[in-house]
Amino acid sequence: MTQIRTAGVIGAGAWGTALAQVCARSGLKTTLQAREPEVVESIGTRGVNEAFLPGVRLDPAIEITAELSGLAHCDIVLAVPPAQHVRSTLTAFAPYARPGLPVVLCSKGIERGSLKLMTEVLAETLPEARAAVLSGPSFAGEVARGLPTAVTLACEDQTLAGELAQALANSLFRPYLADDLIGAEAGGALKNVLAIACGISEGRGLGRSAHAALITRGFSEMTRFAVALGGKAETVAGLCGLGDLVLTCSSPQSRNMSVGLALGQGQSLEQALSGKRSVAEGVESAPAVRDLARRLGVETPICEGVAAILSGEAGVDTVIEGLLNRPLKSEREA
């Protein structure tokens, strides 16, 4: 029987709000922290996150707070700020985090500049925390509305992993356990970049064959990248890698794919991001993925191409032409 009774969620974007729903449905006393005053007011008075998850009625048991100190009592904390803000957010939360607190990292990306994974950022900001990673195919709106979802929950301490899974699981949300945090993180980081590529292909009208090829070759990049970091290929072949990749690359409901779709249709990056309040993590992660892959000596031509398009170094058609004219080689090669 798990001793986890209370959960705190840092970050009330769409995904953080959906995870607060999961916690509440699983019977945990749940506190959701939001930094935006309008989100606190919207959830507190109307029970809806109108800014990030409109139209979804939230469990009335969810408590909303603007203060990170409001999570000091929680048995577990789910950290869900945008990846590029994880360091500053956890640094601000540090005074309220007790030693040994389980922190479930739910943000997907690689920190620009340092090129560090979120677990590395956690180790530097909350060194006494016990880390876990939650990742997998999960659209926030579907999870929040209670549609069936399965994810990977990675934690080196398998006893803790079992306790976390038992605490978070319900009939609509099923965590599968893994012990490979690096593999889980690598899958989540690269799938957002690859989703932009698939959106560009869709926007250019390149067809379903090209779309399938991008997913397949993108999965090869993801696997090479994860293994070079020290992760396991079998982890990436699961929900947190292949599963998340298929979902994110298959629907404009994905924020990252929708950005790519706009780019493929000829919009600038500024136009593609205009009016979008939710973060498309792949836009921020693409240059970090490219730089880290180069440091590791791993070929990631699709991710390289996306980073070049986003930075303005190359146009969409130039990148497509370059990918199609790479030297012929075995499918097992990069």
- N-to-C SSE string, H for helix and E for strand: EHEHEEHEHEHEHEHHHHHHHHH
Low-confidence stretches: none
- Percent helix range: 40-55%
How many helical elements? 15
User: How is the biggest beta sheet arranged?
Assistant: 8 strands, mixed
What value does the average pLDDT take?
Answer: 96
| Strand proportion | 5-15%
**What is the structural class?**
alpha/beta
Overview of the molecule:
The protein has 334 residues and is an alpha/beta fold. The chain is 49% helix and 12% strand. The chain has helices spanning 14-25, 37-46, 86-93, 118-125, 140-145, 158-168, 181-203, 208-229, 233-236, 239-248, 255-264, 269-273, 281-296, 301-311, 316-324, and strands spanning 6-10, 29-33, 63-65, 76-79, 102-105, 130-135, 149-154, 173-178. It has an 8-stranded mixed β-sheet with strand order 3-2-1-4-5-6-7-8, with helices on both faces. Helix 3 (86-93) links the parallel strand 4 and strand 5 (102-105). Helix 7 (181-203) packs antiparallel against helix 8. This is Glycerol-3-phosphate dehydrogenase [NAD(P)+].
State the gist of this model.
The protein is built from 15 helices and eight strands.
Supply database-style keywords.
334 residues; 15 helices; 8 strands; lipid biosynthesis
